[in-house]
Amino acid sequence: MAEWGLGPPDTARELAALADAGINYSPAEVRRPAWTLDTHLHGLLAERPGPPEPAGPWERACRLVRDYEFTPPESVRALYDPAVPLLGRNMLLQLRFHGLHLYCGVRITEVVDETRNDGARVWGWAYETLDGHLERGKVTYEVVKYRDTGRVEFVAASHSQRAPGLDPVLTLGWSLFGRRAQLRFYRRCGERIRAAVTAGKAGTTPPDPVLRNLTWVPSDAEPRRRRAPAVHCVAPG
Question: pLDDT band at residue 228, thresholds of 50, 70 and 90?
Fold first, then answer.
């Protein structure tokens, strides 16, 4: 059941509670037109043809994707334990829309690390939505290098739909702004990872100084003490 409040929740507790949550949909359900299927491609700095260059754009982009550092902080922030292996890791997402902050869980259920038949080198991962999420579905983030041309791409592919049984206010908000917010999110992800790779950024994300062993991303979000008041809702779906 959704929990509303004017103060932020105990996010460390909410993250821990995700261990008992299940995936909130079945892949057998996914089909148009009830589901939205998306693929968004964003070109990054190119490399020389051949395998990925050490510390080059492909490797820098992979580290940014590994740490989930490319998300636009005005839309989505995430809390996770970096000590937990990537595959199976839970993340508590904070979905932000003006003065409304919604807290939802996702789980990383796939890690991609392969060279495809066309020679493209690919690394990435996918998460799926958990019980209580505003949406149902899966998002896959990949960094691809085409060895024949040196082109490097960031690819976000997803299938999604609004979770059933939302609060009437959230249902109306989704109807009016949901799709627009999705498209803006993917566009901003591409802009941010492109800018970070171009600037040579790809360091390890430090733990949050308040939550110690946990990590809030993206790490360039404004400090907590500067954040404006908001209405908070845990598990709106």
Answer: low
